[in-house]
Amino acid sequence: MAMPSSALLPLFRSAQQMRLLAEIFHGVPATGAELARRLGIPQSTVARELARLEGSGLIRTEIVGTGQVAVPADDLPFAPALRQLLAYVGGIVPVLIAEYDGRPEIDEVFIFGSWADRVNGISGPPPNDIDIAIVADSLTRFDLAEERLRLEASTGAKIDQFVVEPDNERLAELRQHSIPVLRRQHAR
């Protein structure tokens, strides 16, 4: 059964289609089976959506090894605008993973606040920014200033980064209704 369109930007046919497009435009190229596993969407639904998206010209498939990989159709006249919209509505998660996965001093990354609320279906006005919590002992937001600037440039969204120590008493409260991005095994 299809989930209704996201309250974050209710332009897409369904929340699943939006997440799939965001992953294709901002994630690592993948087969339909890999996308289904990564997004937690049934493989039959992913196959149907990929066929629709390819039929509409939004994506194309390329043969890589023995599999077909879904890639963005970057030659569309509106591809830059679509890429920016998709970064805002769901592509931020793979962008964040790519940005912070190589930083072993970071224990956890998650999105909280109004953006996460809209993704979770909690109604309200459109968010003005994306609030990101970075759980780390040895970093400050100034240590991550370059990353924030790169994220803003690639997504077109205003990013607010908050570095939180692992023993912060408000951490559990911040995690409520959050969107998990990255969590190391050694994280507390």
TrEMBL record:
Extract the Pfam families matched here.
Answer: MarR_2 (PF12802)
**Organism superkingdom:** Bacteria
Q: Which residues form the HTH marR-type domain?
A: 15-62
Q: Name one GO molecular function term.
A: DNA-binding transcription factor activity
Protein name, per record: HTH marR-type domain-containing protein
Organism for this UniProt entry: Candidatus Neomicrothrix parvicella RN1
